[in-house]
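Lecture 7, part 2: worked example. A protein chain together with tryptophanyl-5'AMP.
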Amino acid sequence: MSDPTSAPAFTPRVFSGIQPSGGLTLGNYLGAMVKFVDMQDRGDFETVYCMVDLHAITAKLIEPATLAHNTRELCAGFIAAGIDPEKSILINQSQVPEHAQLGWIFNCVARMGWMDRMTQWKDKAGKDAERASLGLYAYPALMAADILVYHATHVPVGEDQMQHLELTRDIAAKFNHDYGVDFFPLTETVVEGAATRVMSLKDGTKKMSKSDPVDASRINLTDDADTIAKKFRKAKTDPEPLPGSLDGLSARPDVRNLVNIFAALEGTTPEAVLASREGGMLGHFKVELADLAVAKLAPISTEMARLMDDPAEIDRILARGAERAREITVPILQRTYEIVGLVGHAP
Ligand code: TYM
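Predicted complex, written out as structure tokens:
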């Protein structure tokens, strides 16, 4: 990652988001949240973290009460994982209307050909694209707006979001070029650590996902200790012992995934995990992994449950976050409108 102070024109600022479309998974936690907390605590950046509720309604109809519950639970998850609403700005997207407003401008900057190439669009719309929502198609333009309405310089994400972040840079560059300005930053993607792509516990070639119909394929942050232990015990592996180095795992994606998860939970590297365990049996490793996961995750799920007992406090935190966020987003949107030539938006 480059030195955050190397782009003097823009305040070093982190933005990232998670969809409240279901419960949080170990993939969200290791691929995203751990890095969110780390970047918050480093003190090099202003940090803004978001529950992207407008994105959550692009795929399929979510029961309104469920969406509201998921949004609050995700907020509880952020705080339980270590996001401090005083240090970071914590928001739900719909409470900061400038996201959607800039999203419209970007709908007019992004090209159909760019959107057609998005692999998540192709995966999610599948063969029946005619029945997919217009919102699902425009999803990445709104995502670019989420980031650029803060002039964010760094975006920590898991590997699956990299293409969307390339598109974000393309949109920023085209806007700057079309209007002859140097207004939006070319945001840097931060994909770091041992678990940038956590895989399904049932198929090491498939991403761990909250939308997988098989619950045993993932660890949910709300799972209790017994469930976590059972899911790791039953994770798909093979009968071979652990090798001493990563080369020995190139054709063993299921085991490689467990080693990555172990390293990420422990804050070490997959190489270090293997170095001290060469020849070890997987049955034993899975027990060790389950113990480590429970030790790390149980306090988070307990804290989430405690926070969920007071939803009014969560709503207050989000309202306050939106107020702070709008100190940044209102002037940036105003200036964007002015650049575009929309009347009545001079500061
Ligand atoms: P979402 O909600 O699918 O996932 C949130 C974050 O978790 C990461 N992630 C994973 N990382 C590693 N392994 C996995 N199995 C795994 N599953 C999920 C994702 O990479 C992501 O970082 N489009 C985004 C939400 C979004 C956003 C944004 C992100 C909207 N606007 C602006 C960053 C900046 C999404 O659907 O993430």
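The chain has a mean pLDDT of 95. The longest helix spans residues 311-340. Keep this in mind for problem set question 3.
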